[in-house]
Automatic annotation (TrEMBL):
Domain ABC transporter: 5-192
Keyword Translocase included in the entry's annotation: yes
Protein name as it appears in the record: Heme ABC exporter ATP-binding protein CcmA
Top-rank taxon: Bacteria
PANTHER family registered for this protein in UniProt: ABC TRANSPORTER I FAMILY MEMBER 1
Family annotation (SUPFAM superfamilies): P-loop containing nucleoside triphosphate hydrolases
InterPro entries named in the record: AAA+_ATPase (IPR003593), ABC_transporter-like_ATP-bd (IPR003439), ABC_transptr_haem_export_CcmA (IPR005895), P-loop_NTPase (IPR027417)
A GO term for molecular function: ATP binding
Membrane-spanning residues: none
GO aspect biological process, one term: cytochrome complex assembly
Length: 194
């Protein structure tokens, strides 16, 4: 896996407000970045720029190795049983049913495979969103507040999944207010905004 994520002098202007500028970093295979900052500082905006969902106001972004983004919404079809909803994404990403089963196992929700997504609890839905990322096999994982709603066991499962991803040459960028176990991560602290 030749994952790579690099920002070169990236700026983000939203409305009239300059959230950040001159942002440069490069993550190589196995690399991690931990993005912190108060509400409104621009963490989600930076993640969206990294994902290619929001254009940078200046600078360049380089990505390699495919990308999976887990934001606030689970991005799973609410009407479908969980395994099928995940299967839809897995097929798009060149993964298969075995990858979905492994991802469900990794997040401890194999027993929920036949349950429609709309019936899942908040934490179960969050686990499912992370299972979608795990099943997808992308080189770059962008996780916006991945710990929100997770209990202690699920938080440990997430940390283990991230460690395995990095050990296989994957890259992860995590934006969070919560403490998370991310050894040797580059720290990116965004400033406060009025
Ligand atoms: N579409 C938009 N147009 C203009 N400004 C926006 C838009 N979306 C977000 N913003 C502003 O950009 C700023 C940064 O928002 P962002 O969601 O990136 O912050 P954040 O650090 O993720 O915050 P939080 O910790 O609350 O999730 C906020 O002031 C927000 O109001």
């Amino acid at each position: 896996m030749s994952a790579r994520l690099a920002f070169d002098r990236v700026a983000c202007l939203r409305g009239e407000r300059l959230l950040f500028e001159g942002m440069s970093f490069a993550l190589a295979p196995g690399g991690a970045a931990l993005l912190t900052g108060p509400n409104g500082a621009g963490k989600s905006s930076l993640m969206r720029i990294a994902a290619g969902l929001l254009p940078a106001s200046a600078g360049t972004v380089e990505r390699g190795g495919g990308l999976a983004f887990a934001g606030e919404a689970a991005a799973l079809d609410a009407r479908l049983p969980l395994a099928q909803a995940l299967g839809y994404w897995a097929r798009l990403n060149g993964a298969d049913g075995g990858d979905v089963d492994a991802a469900l196992d990794a997040m401890g929700i194999a027993n929920l495979a036949p349950v429609p997504v709309r019936m899942l609890s908040t934490g179960q839905r969050k686990r499912a969103a992370l299972a979608r990322v795990i099943a997808g096999k992308a080189g770059i994982w962008l996780l916006d507040e991945p710990g929100n709603g997770l209990d202690t066991a699920a938080t440990a499962r997430l940390a283990a999944a991230i460690a395995a991803h990095r050990a296989g040459g994957g890259i992860v960028m995590v934006a969070t207010h919560q403490p998370i176990d991310l050894p040797d991560a580059s720290a990116i602290a965004l400033g406060s905004q009025p």
